[in-house]
């Protein structure tokens, strides 16, 4: 082997050793890099978990500290409501919703929302008593115009409109607020919408005579909070009114069944025909009485005529009622039979007043008054 070949062999060996050394170094550096990456990943995971743990601890601490404050304010608000301090109770509930809402559970938020709606309703009812049915419908004027105000201005305007009992305008203002920002003071806005819908529904039923739209408003209000007993009662009696009216001229017995229940509660409730409950009940009574009389049940018919006339007399129906009364009286008379072999006592046939005025007759000589005239004849002469 010559020197050139030896040099080539050595060069190849050196090159091969360099390659092996280079590969070894590359492998070692990749392990170093991998170890560094793993270490960084562990540190990052630890930092993230620590941050999250710290956040959770702070949230738990805040919730723990907030819970007694919320419960205290809730209890005070309930006491304020019971004692008639509705404005103070509303301030407490506003504070809970604005300051503590992030720490409230769904159940607590629902409780606060219902209490807020009830408080607004108490304020509205305290300012304005429940309207009585009126035969004159009223329609509050309203002209819709574009509203470019901000959320806070709309909120305050809606509160003012509720205080002024402008239910239509309040509802439209709240709807505009919802279109601008659906999440703005959600619980307070729901409570305001509940009060506006509830009162507008009662006005439609009791004042305007728009029964179905009024029931619809009350049903919408119920979606925000449970209806109070007064509104629920009005809705129930209104539904019964509508059911009874559906039997009009079809089944008078059913008409009476429904309206005799509504009559004591809402006697002046009316629908689009302007016929009040009391008027429908009165007419149904004598119409059903006429139906019974035509079927020959005159005494039963008389009872319904009398109930109708207790509400109000009707000169048009009076002749029919009089005929029914006469027929019932004739029907109620017992059958008479001629007496047989019944002697009449003597004292009952004599006229006691005739004895002192009449002179003696053949009949009077038979009376005990004749005995004193016989007695002197039996006395001995001197």
What does the model show?
It is a single chain. The protein is elongated. Residues 134-142 and 342-382 have low confidence and may be disordered. It contains 15 helices and no strands. Helices cover 70% and strands 0% of the residues. Helix 8 (229-246) packs antiparallel against helix 9 (252-262) and helix 10 (277-294) runs antiparallel to helix 11. With 382 residues, the protein is mostly helical.
Question: What does this entry show, briefly?
Answer:
This protein is mainly α. It has 15 helices and no strands. It starts with a helix and ends in an 8-residue tail after the last helix.
How do the helices and strands line up, and which of them pair or pack?
Elements: H1 3-82, H2 86-99, H3 106-127, H4 151-163, H5 167-180, H6 186-208, H7 211-222, H8 229-246, H9 252-262, H10 277-294, H11 298-311, H12 318-332, H13 346-349, H14 362-365, H15 371-374
Keywords:
elongated, 382 residues, 15 helices, disordered C terminus, 3 domains, mainly alpha
């Amino acid at each position: 082997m010559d020197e050139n070949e030896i040099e080539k062999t050595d060069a190849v060996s050196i090159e091969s050793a360099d390659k092996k050394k280079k590969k070894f170094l590359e492998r070692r550096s990749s392990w170093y890099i991998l170890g560094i990456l793993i270490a960084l990943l562990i540190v990052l995971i630890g930092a993230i978990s620590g941050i999250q743990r710290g956040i959770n601890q702070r949230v738990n601490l805040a919730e723990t500290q907030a819970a007694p404050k919320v419960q205290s304010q809730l209890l005070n608000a309930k006491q304020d409501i019971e004692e008639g301090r509705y404005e103070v109770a509303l301030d407490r509930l506003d504070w809970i919703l604005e300051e503590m809402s992030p720490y409230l559970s769904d159940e607590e938020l629902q409780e606060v929302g219902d209490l807020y709606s009830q408080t607004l309703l108490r304020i509205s009812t305290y300012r304005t008593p429940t309207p009585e049915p009126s035969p004159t419908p009223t329609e509050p004027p309203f002209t819709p115009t574009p509203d470019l105000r901000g959320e806070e201005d709309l909120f305050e305007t809606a509160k003012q409109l509720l205080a002024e009992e402008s239910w239509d305008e309040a509802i439209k203002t709240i709807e505009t607020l919802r279109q601008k920002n659906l999440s703005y003071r959600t619980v307070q806005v729901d409570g305001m919408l509940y009060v506006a819908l509830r009162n507008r529904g009662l006005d439609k039923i009791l004042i305007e005579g728009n029964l179905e739209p009024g029931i619809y408003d009350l049903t919408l209000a119920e979606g925000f909070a449970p209806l109070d007993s007064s509104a629920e009662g009005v809705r129930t009696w209104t539904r019964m009114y509508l059911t009874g009216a559906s039997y009009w001229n079809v089944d008078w017995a059913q008409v009476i069944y429904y309206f005799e229940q509504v009559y004591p509660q809402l006697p002046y409730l009316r629908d689009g025909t302007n016929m009040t409950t009391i008027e429908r009940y009165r007419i149904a009574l004598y119409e059903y009485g006429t139906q019974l009389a035509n079927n020959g049940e005159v005494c039963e018919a008389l009872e319904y005529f009398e109930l109708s006339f207790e509400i109000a007399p009707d000169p048009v129906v009076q002749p029919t009622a009089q005929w029914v009364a006469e027929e019932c009286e004739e029907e109620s008379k017992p059958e008479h039979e001629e007496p047989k072999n019944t002697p009449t006592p003597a004292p009952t046939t004599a006229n006691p007043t005739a004895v002192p005025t009449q002179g003696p007759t053949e009949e009077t000589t038979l009376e005990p008054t004749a005995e004193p005239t016989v007695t002197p004849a039996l006395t001995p002469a001197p």
